[in-house]
Design brief:
Structural class: alpha+beta
Strand order of the largest sheet: 6-5-4-7
Strand content: 25-35%
Number of strands: 7
Distance between the termini: 17 Å
Order of helices and strands: EEEHHEEEHEHHH
Mean pLDDT: 83
Helix content: 25-40%
Number of helices: 6
Low-confidence stretches: 130-143
Shape: globular
Length: 169
């Protein structure tokens, strides 16, 4: 999975994180998150270093202090409209986490993000033509800039309804 965009759902006036499969059917998984979590994800996406660590950075610092490493974030289930994730560390140590925290951590250290097929089958939407490979720009070998991708996402949200996304959480 890759972070495609982070924006604001105009219907819910709440940040929504869009994750897209990097292979296969290229489905898009919308995850509604809180404002502080969206801020943490965006700072991690942009590799912004703050004077003091945020909570997810502090946790990663503690993990590193014990010579461990975050290898993978896995979105494991959707229960009662809430996504659940786990952090997979070296040595196969697994820790339950909120998806928003897990994604911020993965972005901070460059760890892979995966989602169980059952979660994608239940909550993902088919590839949104304006968000991923298959667009005219990519067919011509050009990759859309982050700004262009964000603008297409905003146009998509303007016309989208909660029913377009199925479950939320």
């Amino acid at each position: 999975m890759r972070v495609v965009a982070l924006g604001r759902d105009p219907m819910a006036v709440q940040p929504v994180l869009l994750l897209q499969e990097t292979g296969g059917r290229r489905r898009v998984l919308p995850v509604w998150v809180g404002v502080p979590e969206a801020t943490a994800i965006e700072l991690a996406r942009r590799h912004v270093e703050l004077p003091r660590p945020q909570t997810h950075q502090l946790i990663l610092d503690v993990v590193r202090a014990f010579s461990r490493r975050l290898q993978l974030v896995r979105i494991t289930m959707l229960r009662d409209s809430v996504f659940h994730a786990e952090l997979v560390f070296d040595g196969e140590t697994r820790v339950s986490a909120r998806v928003s925290d897990a994604v911020a951590m993965a972005l901070h250290v460059g760890a892979r993000i995966e989602a169980e097929d059952a979660v994608l089958d239940e909550a993902a939407v088919a590839e949104v033509g304006m968000v991923g490979p298959g667009d005219d720009e990519e067919a011509s070998g050009e990759t859309p800039s982050e700004h262009e991708e964000l603008e297409r996402f905003r146009r998509f949200l303007d016309d989208a309804s909660p029913e377009d996304f199925g479950g939320s959480g």
